[in-house]
Amino acid sequence: MPKKSLIIFLLLNLIFSYAGTSAEQVVLKTNYGIIKIELFTKESPITTDNFKRYVKAGLYDGTIVHRINPEFVIQGGGFTKSHDEIETFDNIKNEATNGLKNLKGTLAMARYNNKDSASSQFFFNLKDNPHLDHRNDTNSGYGYAVFAKVVEGFEVLEAMQKIPTAYVENMGDAVPAYPVIIQQVSLN
């Protein structure tokens, strides 16, 4: 095959393979900028279905980022601007055994001590956090289910992590001193 034909063939292959991807994306519009994420629907079907359910119901719209731990995580999806908890659906089964790791730029479901206690809250990993991965089947070692990754807008998270934090009763000492609002979340 002539060199020019080979190049055209490879370029067309690349274009068609890219066009054939149907990864679901979600857009988070915040008062600090836009973050686009890609869902891992194959690896985390329960978690992504749960997340999409909140998105479709509009329950994330107008919520806040309520936890910023620089160089660790940014968490949201659970509280209104007045610090009231949002309406939630039933807790879901933890999919932390899906093989996905809590790497920089991924999203995982937040939970309480019980391994299957995740509902609406999620967090962005600001760095690789291997201690959040599945280690064993106990509640403390089960880990946090990764279900998405940031594909655009990580610089928005980098700007957010520079916001000073303060103590707010019942929410802890990592609450942004200046409101970080998740204005709208939509399937792309």
In short:
With 188 residues, the chain is α+β, with helices and mostly antiparallel strands.
Report on the structure:
This protein is of the alpha+beta class and 188 residues long. It contains three helices and ten strands; from the N terminus they run H-E-E-H-E-E-E-E-E-H-E-E-E. The strands form two sheets. The chain has an eight-stranded antiparallel barrel. It is globular. The model is unreliable at 14-21 (pLDDT under 50).
Largest sheet: 8 strands, antiparallel, barrel
| Overall average residue pLDDT | 92
Secondary structure tally, helices: 3
User: What Rg do the Cα atoms give?
Assistant: 18 Å
Note the overall shape.
globular
Helix content: 10-25%
Distance between the termini: 40 Å
> Which strand order do you get reading across the main beta sheet?
1-2-7-5-6-4-3-10
Query: SSE order, as H and E?
Result: HEEHEEEEEHEEE
User: Hey, roughly how much beta strand do the residues contain?
Assistant: 25-35%
Coarse structural class: alpha+beta
Unreliable residue stretches: 14-21
Counted beta strands:
10
Keywords:
8-stranded antiparallel beta barrel; 10 strands; globular; 3 helices; 188 residues; alpha+beta
What's the arrangement of secondary structure elements?
Blueprint: H1 3-19, E1 25-30, E2 33-39, H2 45-57, E3 63-69, E4 73-80, E5 106-109, E6 122-125, E7 146-152, H3 154-160, E8 165-168, E9 172-176, E10 181-187
